[in-house]
Design a protein that fits this description.
The chain contains six helices and seven strands; from the N terminus they run E-H-H-E-H-E-E-H-E-H-E-E-H. With 224 residues, the protein is of the alpha+beta class. It folds into two domains: 179 residues, Aminopeptidase (3-Layer(aba) Sandwich); 35 residues, no CATH class. The longest helix has 18 residues. The relative contact order is 0.15. About 5% of the residues have low confidence. Bound molecules: coenzyme A. The site of coenzyme A has 18 residues, from strand 4, helix 4 and helix 5.
């Protein structure tokens, strides 16, 4: 599979919301990712499959109301005929497999989210996104990373533990949908030689196992 990592952009939001819905159904509506993209402290990335295109669902055309109704009426008025009978569709987009984000404050990168499409899980994609988040945090000058995971989300906890995050506390009733506790995990001194050596080893092991080498994200000021 050919794929790439890049910063999230506006056009990604329909797919990001789709993936969010699949990953966190009980927390809907989702975070306002549109607002997140404008938040200077927030940094989101997506992993795309370069060989697949995303076909957005066709808009439901009501011939009498809304924008599509207006377009249909204008077409009739000016005698415009679309021989295919279909409304023009926006161009196909890169197919997003997963996304992840951090908030950066005072040298601390807090992981807000990491989610992979259900049909692509257990193929090293979550790990890849985490590696990219750690790299991004380092590039942005962070020295510490933190996150909360649901107490029941042992899959996610084991992903983070694999990358050296350790459990440092419990936030009681942290999640609003079911009052579940949040496990607070951190990895300290991410710039230190031992942590860097561990990350190098994990990255190499990931590349050997999955053959997926993330195209590095371009330099920060050339993104978006
Ligand atoms: C958590 C999540 C991002 C993992 O993504 P993924 O692509 O399936 O994970 P990977 O294939 O890269 O797995 C990496 C590591 O994560 C852990 N892991 C992931 N899925 C696991 C599972 N079902 N059971 C046990 N461990 C699991 C393992 O440590 C695994 O390493 P291993 O393959 O050496 O055992 C994915 O399950 C997901 O999107 N879940 C829903 C959203 C979510 O809970 N996000 C976390 C919020 S804190």
């Amino acid at each position: 599979m050919a794929f790439k990592l890049r910063l999230m952009c506006q056009q990604d939001l329909p797919q990001v919301n789709e993936i969010d819905h699949e990953a966190f159904p009980t927390l809907w509506p989702p975070p306002n990712y549109q607002r997140e993209l404008k938040n200077g402290l927030a940094h989101y990335i997506v992993a795309c499959d370069d060989e697949q295109k995303y076909e957005p669902p066709a808009p439901k055309a009501d011939p009498t109301t809304g924008l599509w109704g207006l377009i249909a009426r204008l077409r009739l008025r000016f005698n415009h005929h679309n021989p295919s009978g279909n409304e023009p569709q926006p161009p196909a987009r890169e197919y997003i497999l997963g996304f992840a984000g951090i908030w950066l404050t005072a040298g601390e990168a807090h992981i807000t989210n990491i989610a992979v499409r259900e049909s692509y899980r257990r193929q090293g994609m979550g790990e890849l996104l985490l590696i990219a988040l750690i790299d991004l945090a380092l590039e942005l000058g962070a020295h510490l990373m933190t996150l909360e995971a649901r107490a029941s989300n042992t899959d996610a906890q084991s992903l983070y533990a694999k990358y050296g995050f350790i459990e440092v506390g419990l936030r009681r009733n942290y999640y609003t949908d079911n009052r579940e506790d949040g496990v607070l995990m951190t990895i300290e001194a991410i710039t230190s030689a031992p942590v860097q050596a561990d990350l190098r080893r994990l990255r190499q092991a990931h590349a050997r196992r999955w053959g997926k080498i993330a195209t590095a994200l371009p330099a920060r000021n050339s993104r978006r």
